[in-house]
Specification:
Layout (H helix, E strand, L loop, with lengths): L1 E10 L3 H8 L2 H6 L4 E8 L2 E6 L10 E11 L3 E7 L3 E12 L2 E12 L4 H24 L4
Antiparallel strand pairs: 1-7, 2-3, 3-4, 4-5, 5-6, 6-7
Length: 142
């Protein structure tokens, strides 16, 4: 089973400010609650240590992430691979009158029982975390 979620955020902020946050691997990883720690390796690569509260997983999972598309200042897409799941995240910024729109899409393919169920139940909260972190960085609507 694949879990897919999409959500769009609207900001009264310049697209370049949203791009500064969403294109930064450290900012993206820091906004996700299940990422315990992370190491940014440069060149669009990072390792996330992810802790999922499911019975099959008793320790953190190393997720090797890499940017596969980077189109400044409009779009960034990354893929994360681990023994438990594969995740793809894509963020697209569109300029609007007085600000911008950020379209987010995430897809998770689980490889262990319980992974997809966890993400299906928790993706909305994780997107809320991402939006809050972004708004804090922009200092708007926190």
């Amino acid at each position: 089973m694949t879990v897919r979620v999409s959500r769009t955020f609207e900001f009264d902020a310049p697209p370049a400010d949203v791009w500064a946050f969403i294109s930064d691997a450290e900012q993206r990883a820091g906004a996700i609650s299940v990422v315990d720690t992370f190491t940014v390796h440069g060149e669009g690569r990072a390792t996330w240590q992810v802790s999922l509260p499911i019975p099959m997983i008793r320790s953190t999972i190393a997720v090797e992430t890499e940017e596969v598309v980077r189109d400044p200042p409009r779009r960034v897409k990354f893929v994360g691979r681990s023994s438990a799941f594969r995740v793809t995240g894509e963020h697209t910024i569109t300029e609007t009158d007085g600000g911008c729109r950020l379209a987010n899409e995430f897809v998770v393919d689980g490889r262990l029982p319980g992974v997809e169920t966890f993400f299906k139940r928790n993706f909305d909260a994780e997107l809320d975390n991402l939006e809050r972190a972004l708004r804090r960085s922009l200092r708007v609507d926190v």
